[in-house]
Every structure is written in C-alpha cells, then in structure tokens.
Sequence to fold (204 residues):
Amino acid sequence: MELHLIRHGQTDWNKERRAQGQSESRLTELGEQQARELGEKLAHIDYDHIYCSSSQRTRQTAEIAFGNRNREIEYRDSLREIFLGPWEGRLYDEIEVEYGDSFHHFWNEPHKFAVEGAESFFDLQVRAMNTLDDIVTNSSHQRVAIVSHGALIKAVLAHIEALPMQDLWRPPLMHNCAHNVIERIDDGKYQIHVYADQPFSSVR
Fold:
C-alpha cells in the first residue's frame, strides 16, 4: 500500500509566527495557491481514497487540491497536529519569553519537550503511527493521500527511519504542501520513497 503524506498550505498563523497546534487557522492567499499547485503536480496520480486531518487548514488544502476528483475525503481527528495546550494561539516570541526552556526544547531538544496540558512528541508519534496502521489494516485501497501537519508527518518519518526523538527536526524541512511518499511493505514495515518532495530510501 502506498501512502502520500502531505502538509497543509501556508496559514495566517504560519505567517504571523503564531503557535497553531489543534487550534483553527486559515490558509493565506499563498497557501491557497500552494494547494492549487499541489493539486496540479499530483493530478497524474490516481488516489483510491483521501484522508485528512479535521483541522480547517488541512480541510481547505484537501478541498482545493483534490476537490475536483470523484473521491471521498475522510476527515479524522487523529490526524490533527500536536496539541500545544496553553501555547495555542500565542505568538512564538511571547512563548519564548514565558516558556524559555520549553521553547528551546520544542525546537532543539524535542525529546525533552514537556508542557502541562500539551502533548509530548512521543505521544504525537504513537497517535500518528496508530492512525497510519489503522488506515492500512482496515483499508483495501492501494494508494491513498493523507493531508496532515508538519510535526505529525515528521514524527511518522522519524519512526520509519528509527531516528531518536532528539533528531525529529533534522532536515529536510517539511515545508508547506510538502509531498512525502511511503509504502507499507510485505513484512509490515514502512519504506520512504519521497521525503519533502525529494527522493529518499530508508527501511525501518
């Protein structure tokens, strides 16, 4: 089974450098253009099914990129971004002042990130992989698109590469509307073929 993991387009909160998490933000004009270009780039790929985070920004991205296809879009809460609790909706500059150590951990030592009321990256990775495994196990589809979020997709790819959590943010960057391709292979493992639009080869 082939899974195409796609990050949403640029949002107003991306532009403002505001923490999003599971709070709602909307695509900017650039984000909408990125989603249109994504749809054009992937027009030659015949997806059997499309899964999408239930967040507004991913819904917008999926509808713009794939809305003209005769395919159901299935929305799942479990594909939402890492939950950031008290950080959500606040500017990163403000968070850095109030939560200096945790802010540093988030971007530089994600294995140490722990904020009361927020998910850890370990929790996010478990949720993401459980969702992925559920999609694979309970679906007869051969090729699916999954529209989700940067940290969630990075957590999935880190798991496949068997990277320690401290290396979560290792390049390449998961840019807006980044396209990733992974495959579930016969022994139950996943293999990465495309990472943020670049060819890649790795087996867990």
User: Anything to note?
Assistant: The chain has a mean pLDDT of 95. The longest helix spans residues 121-137.
